[in-house]
């Protein structure tokens, strides 16, 4: 059973420190993760798979990208168990360290010209390790904030942790675009691409400093004091919370699947097939994520007023409706249309979904199972892992057209919409003159809150 914690006892200064440290730590970790996305889609085919043709080399580089997505669910299960047994704070320190070491190692890794076949093999291993760390990061960073926050403001504050993901993307793509722009092509491909990866060690040090300054969450501290930490939390989640688990998998698939498809469409199709400048493509994504950093928090705030489900469903419907116009605007090869397409996709569709899922998923599970329960949604990563290869195959099958990808995007959004429609509302909207709702309690599968 969940243990109600006196979250209201957390003062404003401490709460701000928790929110900022969680968002910054998340930004540091996702900076590492997105660096590989940029390198894998724009450069690694030449450096680690030079013996393959351009198209096949790109697919091979994207295949290593998929390895990280496949290892995310495993990382979620492993670190979810540790987070429910040992604590949120200690687990987040571990994941940040692991990600930092793996990313720095990528920056030091010799290319295929030096190591031959061992270069792509080691790249795949490091990518697998990155995925493990990223899988343990998301749930912990959300819980660090959610379990310090009053229930009637949980949507607002937890949505700020997701701004860390956008900030990580902005930092990674920004520094990648900077070095690719100021260096010659030869300089960038020879040594310039390594600098953003090596800089990761400094950013991780900053993230660690901030995370070590925050306290363990009140709810987990109460669980430890009462000896109620579960011995096998994931087993209990899968046995007693099947509906909640399926809802999180479907909702996360809609959200992360849409984001992945948009990024791949711009970076792979836009750059490789249409000849759009990589700098323009990255700039469009940076603007889209910059706008989303604001709108996702607004959607999180709105979910505190009208509930989690309606806000997510508006985001999912908006994303589905934007799929085909987005592909049309991308096909114009016009930079203004490209920026508009990405800004609408992330600023409205994706923001509506990702701004809600932190608080929504937190409230679906009791405190003693929460880290493991929230990590189950990463099983959707096993599905999105095939997107890089699927998008390449569909492009070849459609003769260079991306219209089939728009159809896939709509399907993914509908999966998220159906999952949340099936779910129970987890939040009772409150007003300033009414008491805040209590934290989630252990409710049997299928019951109504």
Give a structural overview.
This protein is an all-alpha fold and 449 residues long. It has a single domain (7-422), classed as Up-down Bundle (Growth Hormone, Chain: A), CATH 1.20.1250. Helices cover 78% and strands 0% of the residues. The radius of gyration is 21 Å and the shape is globular. The two termini are 15 Å apart.
Helix-strand layout with pairing:
Layout: H1 12-42, H2 44-48, H3 54-85, H4 88-108, H5 112-115, H6 118-146, H7 154-182, H8 185-192, H9 194-198, H10 200-212, H11 218-225, H12 233-240, H13 242-273, H14 278-306, H15 308-331, H16 335-354, H17 357-364, H18 370-375, H19 380-384, H20 387-397, H21 403-422
User: Given this structure, which CATH class is correct?
Assistant: Mainly Alpha
Cα separation of the termini: 15 Å
Overall helicity: over 70%
Percent range for β-strand residues: under 5%
Keywords:
449 residues; mainly alpha; Growth Hormone, Chain: A; 21 helices; globular; disordered N terminus
In short:
By secondary structure, the protein is an all-alpha fold. Helices cover 78% and strands 0% of the residues.
